[in-house]
Write a structure and sequence with these properties.
Layout (H helix, E strand, L loop, with lengths): L8 H7 L15 E4 L15 E5 L2 E7 L2 E6 L11 H9 L38 H4 L10
Antiparallel strand pairs: 1-2, 3-4
């Protein structure tokens, strides 16, 4: 699964040295985990719904604008997977397997709820539901 890192305004400010002539060395010490589909704003300073911090990480700058990051949860914690989705992944032919959102893990058969009781999510593209993309209705629904 691809993971998109968002560098917030606070993060960018931490990168710039005091003389504004270059960057500071920055160490990513931990990664926050949230069960919420989050589309962070540049002004964000906290992760909504964060329930865990993982400090077992490694990575490297592999290009001037690319950071390769590996996060490993070494705890005994279990992460939920809907049993129906698991069975569909296991049993269904490849062309009939459920689409699963890369943000929150919901599927066509098990959609997540939208904020403010606005109903269930829909698909904005092949990999992301409306809740995780932050798109407002009306949208093109992919089935």
């Amino acid at each position: 699964m691809a993971l998109t890192l968002t560098i917030t305004d606070a993060g960018r400010a931490a990168l710039v040295n005091a003389a504004h002539s270059g960057t500071n060395a920055v160490r990513i010490a931990s990664v926050g985990v949230s069960g919420a589909g989050v589309a962070p704003l540049p002004t964000s300073t906290t992760l909504p719904g964060e329930y865990k911090r993982i400090a077992t990480i490694s990575g490297a700058a592999v290009a001037s604008d690319i950071i390769h990051l590996v996060v490993r949860d070494e705890s005994a914690d279990a992460y939920p997977l809907d049993v129906d989705v698991y069975l569909q992944l296991r049993d269904a032919p490849a062309d009939a397997r459920p689409r699963i959102c890369v943000g929150c893990g919901c599927s066509h058969w098990d959609p997540c709820g939208l904020p403010d009781d606005a109903g269930s999510c829909a698909w904005t593209n092949e990999t992301t539901c409306t809740r995780c993309s932050g798109e407002a209705f009306p949208i093109t629904v992919y089935q």
